[in-house]
Design goal:
Helix content: 25-40%
Distance between the termini: 37 Å
Largest sheet: 8 strands, antiparallel
Structural class: alpha+beta
Length: 258
């Protein structure tokens, strides 16, 4: 297992330029059942040390982590301990641990704004290691009275774009270990066969995959959820995977960085 650091990235890119190495990586991709464009994506998206705080860097950073895990350049496991070892790298994170890591790395101003909001409103329920949980994200996104400098709330799910954040909370009165989830939009939502529903590809960390097509054991990966919209585009329901018959009518909030 090679660490996904700057030196190994340069080494890998040199190998990819070699036709023999390209053929070897193609075989790895086929063996792992990855998409045909995964190798091109792995070459394209680089983790930047001094990123410009925008949505593209955020989603590219998350995509880079996913592709590194798929190619065996990183490890991931779902855990509420939220431990990240960048020397391996290994991500033992829950859903908020993953989003917090991406935001802290790629948009520190946006993360600091949420922390300041928590301090301002004294909303410390479930506040973990100085980082927000799902409930704090939800309340921050939904607070229309608070002037947001680095965030923009989204009210129509048809307008979701890669890098946007979706948070769902069954209970908005207290933090729980179940019934609350946060995820990042990976690709633009696409129409579903069901009227009033969209299929939304997402990046997240979870105990298990989003249905039979999600091959993760646990941890960080790309998956698909189905979201239900009313006539005005408001998100009113969610399926953990598109084929599920269980509809979660939770409290939802959506936002994107500016």
């Amino acid at each position: 297992m090679h660490a996904l650091n700057e030196a190994s990235l340069k080494s890998l890119e040199t190998e990819i330029a070699n036709k023999k190495a390209r053929a070897r990586l193609q075989k790895i991709i086929q063996h792992l059942g990855l998409g045909a464009d995964d190798l091109r994506q792995y070459q394209k998206f680089r983790i930047q040390k001094n990123p410009i705080a925008n949505r593209d860097n955020i989603v590219n950073f998350a995509r880079k982590i996913v592709l590194a895990i798929r190619l065996g350049q990183a490890e991931s496991q779902f855990s509420h301990d939220n431990k990240i070892d960048t020397s391996i790298p290994r991500y033992e994170v829950n859903c908020t641990g993953f989003i917090n890591y991406v935001m802290t790395s790629q948009h520190p101003s946006g993360m600091e704004e949420i922390k300041n909001y928590i301090r301002l409103t004294h909303d410390y329920k479930g506040y973990s290691n100085g980082l927000p949980r799902c409930l704090q994200y939800y309340r921050f996104f939904k607070d229309s009275k608070h002037l947001k400098k680095h965030w923009e709330s989204i009210y129509n799910a048809q307008h979701l774009r890669p890098g946007d954040i979706i948070v769902s909370c069954e209970n908005i009165e207290k933090v729980t270990k179940g019934g609350q989830h946060i995820m990042m939009v990976a690709k633009p939502p696409k129409p579903s066969k069901e009227m009033g529903w969209l299929i939304c590809p997402i990046y997240d960390s979870s105990r298990g995959g989003h249905g039979p097509n999600d091959l993760r054991g646990s941890g960080i990966e790309e998956g698909e959820i189905a979201i239900m919209l009313n006539n005005s585009g408001k998100l009113t329901g969610l399926k953990w995977f598109p084929e599920s018959e269980i509809v979660r009518s939770y409290n939802f909030a959506m936002a994107r960085v500016k």
